[in-house]
Amino acid sequence: MSTPAAAPLLRLSGINTYYGQIHILRDVEVEIGEGELVCLLGGNASGKSTTLKTILGIVEPRTGSVTLASEEITALPTALRIQRGLAIVPENRRLFGPMTVRENLEMGAYLRPKADLKEELERVHTLFPLLYERRSQLAGTLSGGEQQMVAMGRALMSQPKLLLMDEPSMGLAPILVERSFEIIKQVNDAGVAMLVVEQNANVSLSIADRGYVLSTGRIVLEGKAADLLENEELRKAYLGR
Length: 241
Description:
The chain contains ten helices and ten strands. By secondary structure, the protein is α/β, with parallel strands linked by helices. The longest helix is centred in the C-terminal third of the chain and has 16 residues, at 174-189. The protein is globular, with a radius of gyration of 18 Å. The model has no long low-confidence stretch (mean pLDDT 87).
């Protein structure tokens, strides 16, 4: 007798999302398993940002469901979804520039008991030793790659079940993009499930387990990352590669 497959950590099922009368996401189906690193690819206006907003509850789908850890969260507001275990590293990182690195990290733990703060800081500092060295430095004075570490550390302070990354290569010099994705892989290897929303197909697929490709609000390709990297349709039709 075979063992039934474990339920995915996150499941988007039959998602149809609108802005007014404009149909943005069309029957979107996405799954992310425990500990998986999944990338969501697509060009501008493909629906990537709307997918993130739907997961976070910023946008409510007209039809379909969002399930996290076997709990349907479709009707939950964003704050309760964060409490349930979602965290996001937003596009362009959006740190509190006039605050120190430590203060930025502490902001990520605002839902955690204060007694856990020391333990969470130690966990993040173990993952990113540089953040301990720079703990008193103003976040706005850090390099782009260092700010990426702070943004990820801040998100990890909440001990998320699923970490969402919105365009992590955005605004980084090409030489820093590879380092940024090394950091993402490092966090995933530490056991954190991740959804990386990106336009950079080659770099994101090189570290991912699986990938989905969005085009005009529909999932047009999905599969193992290694297979998608070799897919001619992906390179030419959807991402211009």
